Every structure is written in structure tokens, then in C-alpha cells.
Amino acid sequence: MTALQEVLLAVSLWPILFTISNPINCGDEQSSLSNCLSISQEKLLDRVIQHTELIFRVSEESCTLFEEMFIPLPLQLQTNQAGNACMTKALHIPSSKSEIQQITDKWLLHSVLMLVQSWIKPLVYLQTTMTQYDFASETLLNKTKWMLEKLISLEQGVVVLIKKMLNEGAMATTVTEQDLFPTDLQPDILASIMNDYNLLSCFKKDTHKMEILLKLLKCRQNEIYNCA
């Protein structure tokens, strides 16, 4: 079996959960989601926000590390100017300030959940491919592993939050796996590195978007005028 086939096999074996269920392990008091079902709605929302902030911070650190190790400055500038075609664009989640302010609390929560779930499988892929790079540091590999673990924990917290706030299960997505996950993987090492860099950059953008949506939700829950 080739290295590329091993990557595809590892990715195909990872399930994305789209149904409501009781979270088994919501973490502990230290930057995690503890006892999701028993804590108050307000406290759970605060923990979900803190969790998202931490993931965003580590995604920034991971992008910087990846750039320092693999991406020369000219390529960084070229990539930034061209912009990233992020896979989650297919989800059609509002991004402008005016669009975000118009969506309901229900869609704020479900938008966050869709973003979280759409990134679990790509992070499995990212963790697998980066182990093949000769010069990938343990620090970067550990950060990637940490982000995947915390993203799964975040999913559990958001699912419980939906149940608490909306008294319903998670809505099924109509976007197929093929829409979200690239199937035209290239075995070439440079193409693989640039693809991973794009994934990390997009993940950083989407975790920031999750943070914005959740903070808007908290603002609305506190009935603060003119939440932005």
C-alpha cells in the first residue's frame, strides 16, 4: 500500500457525527467542556466560547510554525494575495457583518456546528500527512493532534448547547462529503505541503468565524442592544 493510499484509508475510517447524542467526555475545568449536561446554559456557552478561542489561538500558532518550516516568504505572499479557496465555502454560512446579524440564534448555533463537523475529517487527514514530512517538528504535530481532540470536544459542547437552548437535535446537513473534502489529492510533496498550508489557513479562518458567531449569540442572550 502506498503512502497516499494509507492517508486515504485513515481518512475514510473516521466518522463525522451528525446526530444528537450525550457527550461521553466533555473534558475538565481547564479550558474544556466539563459535565456538559449538568451545567447551566449560560456557563456552557461561556465554556464553548473559551474552547473556540483556544482552538483559534493554537491554529494561529500552527500556521506560523508551518510557514517557518515549509513555506518560503515569496510563496507566503503569493498565497495570501491569491486568497484561499476554503472547502467550507460550500456550506454558505453568512460571513458579512450584515448577514450574520440577520440570522436567528438557531442558525447561529447550527452554523457553528456545521463548521465544527466539517473540519473533523480534514484534521485527521492533516495529522496523517504531516507525519510523512521529514522536517515536521514534534511541536507542530502535537498542536495538530491537540486541535483535532479539542474540535471533537467542542462538537460535543455545541450539540448539548443546541439541546439546551433550542430543545432539539442537530439538523442534518445537505452538503455531501465530496463537496467538503478534496478527492483530487496529489502525491507530489510540494503539492501536498501547499494543500496542508491551505487547510491550516482555512481552519484558522473558520475557527475565528465560529468565535464571532458564538460571541454574537452570547451578546443576544444577555440582551445587549446593538450586538455586533
From TrEMBL:
Q: Keyword Disulfide bond on this protein?
A: yes
Listed A to Z, the keywords are: Disulfide bond, Glycoprotein, Hormone, Secreted, Signal
Q: Name one GO cellular component term.
A: extracellular space
Q: Which InterPro entries match?
A: 4_helix_cytokine-like_core, Somatotropin/Prolactin, Somatotropin_CS
Any GO molecular function: growth hormone activity
Where does the secretion signal sit in this chain?
1-21
Q: Subcellular localization, per the record?
A: Secreted
Q: Name one GO biological process term.
A: positive regulation of growth
Q: What broad class describes the main subcellular location of this protein?
A: secreted
Q: Which family does it belong to?
A: Belongs to the somatotropin/prolactin family.
Question: What name goes with this protein?
Answer: Somatolactin alpha
- Which gene carries the instructions for this protein? smtla
